[in-house]
Design a protein that fits this description.
It is a single chain. By secondary structure, the protein is of the alpha/beta class. It has 2 domains: about 1-75 and about 140-180; about 80-140 and about 185-220, no CATH class. The protein is built from 10 helices and 7 strands. It has helices at about 15-25, 30, 55-60, 80-90, 90-95, 100-110, 120, 160-170, 200-205, 205-215; strands at about 1-5, 5-10, 35, 70-75, 110-115, 135, 150-155. Strand 1 (about 1-5) and strand 2 (about 5-10) form a beta hairpin. The chain is globular. The two termini are about 35 Å apart.
Length: about 220
């Protein structure tokens, strides 16, 4: 969570949050506008603050009046996000278990994710119980609490969107390409998680599908 003078930034896991935190802390003009942020920079540049995924409810709990402010959220294409979610939360637990991998892939290809993202909870969670899986769309329920449409920062075009939607309109500056130097260290080439039923995934997650279509429509032209 970041509360700045003119906007609030919050994000769900695996949507470019660490990179956004890195960029917004690059220069003094950005930092001077920050009223609150859940940020502790780790050795590799990543945000290691456990509260970094605080969301809209936190603002009310801490008496922030954001009615006149813009809401900024991270976003990522659904198929890429599903695989990243699985790699991050399920890879180490189940990478050598063929039966589990087969079941997880079956659920992913329905557009489902495991309910609990905490690794300590996952060790006690029954992945074969359908009750423990929800559609990925559930992570966007926060949008229904917002009084205005959020500004989305696409993980795949993070520096471009940061410049076009944050740096230029709010601060009248533009970051250079070499400012975006935080990379993903996870090698996905050997990941056992596979996507095959694209149509079903998008059909089962209409909110995500609609947002993605709006944000990435230029790619299809």
């Amino acid at each position: 969570m970041i509360v700045a003078n003119d906007f609030v930034y919050f994000h769900k896991g695996k949507t470019g949050g660490d990179k956004f935190y890195e960029l917004i802390n690059k220069h003094k003009i950005f930092r001077d506008s920050i009223i609150h942020q859940d940020y502790i920079r780790g050795k590799d540049g990543r945000n290691i603050n456990s509260l970094k995924h605080n969301t809209f409810w936190w603002l009310g709990q801490n008496n922030y009046n954001t009615e006149s402010m813009d809401y900024v959220m991270g976003f990522r294409q659904l198929l890429s996000w599903l695989l990243s979610f699985a790699n991050h939360h399920l890879y180490e637990l189940y990478k050598d278990t063929d039966v589990a991998i087969k079941h997880i892939n079956k659920q992913l290809n329905k557009g489902l994710i495991i309910k609990h993202a905490d690794p300590f909870l996952l060790t006690e969670l029954n992945i074969y119980d359908d009750w423990n899986w929800i559609y990925a769309d559930n992570i966007w329920h926060v949008i229904t609490q917002l009084k205005k449409k959020p500004i989305f920062i696409r993980q795949e075009y993070l520096l471009e969107d940061f410049n076009g939607k944050i740096a230029l309109p709010y601060y009248n500056i533009k970051l250079k390409q070499n400012d975006n130097n935080l990379i993903n260290n996870f090698d996905k080439s050997d990941s056992p998680f596979k996507i095959s039923d694209i149509e079903t995934i998008y059909r089962n997650n209409p909110t995500w599908s609609d947002i993605e279509r709006e944000l990435y429509n230029d790619e299809d032209s």
